[in-house]
Design brief:
172 residues, 31% strand, 28% helix, Cyclic Phosphodiesterase, Chain: A, four-stranded antiparallel sheet, alpha+beta
């Protein structure tokens, strides 16, 4: 089964992201707006209890993380994804590093960790340029604290759903 680990932002930020995702993200219906902490990886049924215990331990040793967003950005020219740029913080980096080591390590990640919330992807070059140009003129200043992360699994139809939630800073 395919799993992933994400942070879900507040409803306010999800609503903002979805106002763009409805139009510019073909994955809009498959998963809510999120910040990916660990890219999709495979687990079998027997591995899930040990992974859950490891995630609970990591969560208990990790402080809640601040999410600060001040601009829109893009991964161009690598791909035409547009996102809300999340400012890297020590807590966020530590959490992401912890989740990508130990028994969860699946080799080197395909990409360096760039904290973000995708709002558009798979855009044509012209559409990407137009949308990003408009968004860069838009002012955004959002800050919030997130106190949990989620282990998700992918359903047969390609959508993602929460398997388990882990509260940060609480030894459970």
């Amino acid at each position: 089964m395919k799993f992933g680990i994400v942070l879900f932002p507040s409803k306010k930020l999800q609503d903002l992201a979805n106002s763009y995702r409805k139009r510019y993200d073909p994955h809009y219906a498959l998963i809510p707006p999120h910040l990916t902490l660990k890219a999709p990886f495979e687990l079998n049924e027997e591995q899930i209890p040990a992974v859950s215990a490891l995630l609970r331990d990591i969560a208990g040793r990790t402080k809640p993380v601040s999410l600060n967003i001040a601009k829109f950005s893009s991964f161009s020219p690598v791909n035409n994804a547009i996102y809300l740029k999340v400012q890297a913080t020590e807590e966020l980096d530590q959490l992401q590093t912890a989740l990508n080591q130990n028994d969860l390590s699946t080799g080197e990640p395909e990409y360096a960790f760039v904290p973000h919330i995708t709002i558009g992807q798979k855009l044509s070059d012209d559409e990407h340029s137009d949308v990003l140009g408009q968004l860069r003129m838009t002012s955004i200043d959002h800050e919030e604290v997130i106190d949990r992360f989620h282990l998700l699994y992918q359903l047969e139809n390609g959508s993602w759903t929460v398997y388990e939630t882990f509260h940060l800073g609480r030894e459970e």
